[in-house]
Amino acid sequence: MPVRQTSYARGAAEEAATAQTPPAPALGQTGPPVFTRTEVEQIDRLLPFIAYVDGQLSIDGVSGEQLWDGQRSLLLHVPSRAVDNYRSIRDAFAKYFSVSVNCAIKACYLGPVLAALRDAGAGAEIAGELEWRIARSLGFAADRTIVNGMSRQADHLQMLLSDEGLLIDVDSMEEVQHLEWHARLAGAKPKVMVRVNPLPPDSFFSERSKLGVGADAAYELLEHVARSAHLELYGLHAHQLVRCTDPAQFGEIARRMGDLRTELAGRTGGRVSALDLGGGIEARYLLERAGHSIADFALAARDALAGSDGFELLLEPGRYVFGDAAVVLSRILGTKLKEGQHWHIAEVGSNLLPPTSDRAYPPLPLRIADGTPWRRTHIADPTPTPARLYLDAMLPADVAGEGIALLGTGAYTAVRASLWNAGLPDIGFIRDGAVEIVFDRKAQDETFRALYGIELGPMDAELEEPQAGAGEPLRARQACH
What we know:
alpha/beta, 6-stranded mixed sheet
């Protein structure tokens, strides 16, 4: 795809000058380093499916009015990128292991994205009855489905036990005995994984976490399952990473899991056929921006498990597969100057994009034009809360009239969204060079009525655009065309 190259001499000078302006002391700076102007203008080097063509943002080959009409914000999924992310992790680990990559459905519920992954050969990781129904509806094979969760109700367990081949996770003696009782009643013998915490407590898996069991309790569970006439001990499971960009940390989990497998065999003679290292790896574009690739993680696992053989490796990526496989296209509703700091207020709200860090959703301009100065600005949502979408963004000074694209919006966004305050944008995906919408304002109103029993009624007629030089100049151009 041809990409318009711009002159960076002026941009570098502007960037250096504005970088000297520190953010207000009260503002935190959590999350990855800020995107530079050069990174923004050459975004295709990091995300090949996004580029500037003749100065206009193009996503998966679609640009301009075909991409977005600028009328309502849009959460746009790119199934082809999710598939490419899946294949990258599968291929990296397949060099050294018999591997099954089971994508975490909890990260993204959009049917066309999940169907594309299924067709590409991905398995599914599910939690709870809702996601079991999603996986069944989309045709994920039972023997490629990992079931996580706890305190499963009797009717849900009966459904699970009727699906031969599912791999069911347990992490307490209560769960083991509960599953064992229902398996005996159903005349089934499900494959079971025991969830363990192989590393010392950390900020995610603290000593007060409900998840997993320590080493001593793990041996008790493993020995019980190995002796059971109604359960088949199949695997060890550990999910102890969050937004991980460190292959060494991943390798340490793999090493400890291999040790537990060996120790179990020595103590009980029990055989563990699978090691599930879970998910928790950072979104691919941020992982690669930090200087690593998924191949580094595969190498770390290979080295850590060099003394082990005869097992299947399982992975449950969520954010890595889905995180950068969607973009939000948002209008800018207004601007604000506070204590020398520029703010742009985006239409899309934190009810869709949870502010997990101060730099969670890097913004891109929809257009780049020679001669336009760039400056530092903060991106926030319109809700009356302190939510921030991105601090210290480097953007063209005229971005308010064009709108922005927010990266990293594909995982744990729409699945956890609410209708609170700001409402939701349209939701769609790109297929065969066109944008298809699956959720719009009408669907939002129907959802609101179903949830809250309120008929919102028709929208007022659209207001006319103000004349040049009158009214609100910021709103003179809200569309991207």
